[in-house]
Write a structure and sequence with these properties.
Layout (H helix, E strand, L loop, with lengths): L14 E5 L11 H9 L9 E5 H7 L3 E3 L3 H8 E10 L2 E8 L4 E3 L12 E3 L5 H16 L4 E10 L2 E12 L23 H13 L7 E5 L29 H25 L1
Parallel strand pairs: 2-8
Antiparallel strand pairs: 1-10, 2-10, 3-7, 4-5, 5-6, 8-9
Helix pairs in contact: 1-4
InterPro entries: F420-0_g-glutamyl_ligase, F420-0_gamma-glut_ligase-dom
Pfam families: F420_ligase
Protein name: Coenzyme F420:L-glutamate ligase-like domain-containing protein
């Protein structure tokens, strides 16, 4: 059915189920098979979405390093420094990750992993989501979407929330063309995958050892496996109005001014 102005009718109910009983994931584990076994009791069906935390994806892929290599790992995972700030415990670096994500410490994290180790983000979170989605669709004969989630801070907002860093079989962005009164909406495009990841985190928690959540009631957003993944949610650099932190922007401006002044002085001397 369709609602007003041709948009898909919104479902009345949304159900989120924590998937328990998944043990510790180790490098080399067949994570798609493990996820499929774990969700089987919930009888997955068309339109379900399975949210998997990036931690277990990273563990299965062997993205584990000694904690002593944290700073080196951050540098290796980064392609650009956005901002840095010193604090009593060291220096916080906000960087552009090689995947395009802008986040603290390149996503390198010591939580929910063995003592003395750190986890790096998956090599390709969209590909990881795709592999899990393929296994789920094959096993259950149903159109199931998959999101790989991670916890990020937000500019201008205190606190953190989970977002989608990988996705498969789901429309991660759903532009809305008109409002409830039929007026055109030129830029409104809900980040559906991020909203689902955030909702799933409310069920999974941070310390409850629940790395998988099944979401039911959002089948209107489930699509084919050829749908673009979460990389679509990364803002293009040309559209980024806040590409640097304030200190870095001031520093770049002063340096540009110094170079311009030297150039002008050189030109005047030559004349």
């Amino acid at each position: 059915m369709t609602g007003r102005h041709g948009d898909p009718e919104r479902g009345a109910d949304l159900e989120l189920r924590a998937v328990r009983g998944i043990g510790e994931i180790r490098p080399g584990d067949d994570l798609p098979a493990i996820v499929a076994d774990a969700v089987s009791e919930l009888e997955p069906r068309d339109g379900d979405i399975v949210v998997v935390t990036s931690k277990v994806v990273s563990k299965a892929e062997g993205r584990i390093r000694p904690a002593a290599e944290r700073e080196q790992a951050i540098t290796e995972e980064s392609v650009r420094l956005v901002a840095s700030r010193a604090h009593p415990g060291g220096i916080t670096r906000i960087v552009e990750h090689r995947s395009g994500l802008v986040l603290a410490a390149a996503g390198v994290d010591a939580s929910n992993t063995d003592d003395g180790t750190i986890l790096l983000l998956p090599l390709d979170s969209d590909a990881s989501a795709h592999a899990i989605a393929e296994r789920l669709r094959s096993r259950f004969g149903a159109a199931i979407g998959v999101i790989v989630s991670d916890t990020l801070g937000r500019a201008w907002r205190v606190g953190q929330t989970d977002v989608a860093i990988g996705a498969a079989g789901i429309r991660v962005l759903e532009p809305v063309s008109v409002d409830a009164n039929g007026r055109p909406l030129l830029v409104t495009a809900p980040a559906i995958a991020d909203e689902i990841a955030g909702a799933a985190e409310l069920v999974a928690g941070k310390a409850d050892a629940v790395p998988v959540v099944l979401v039911r009631g959002l089948g209107r957003h489930v699509a084919g496996l050829d749908e673009p993944g979460a990389a679509r949610l990364v803002r293009a650099s040309g559209d980024d109005m806040f590409r640097l932190g304030s200190d870095e922007a001031y520093r770049a401006g002063r340096e540009a001014g110094r170079i311009d002044a030297l150039a002008e002085a050189g030109a005047a001397h030559a004349g």
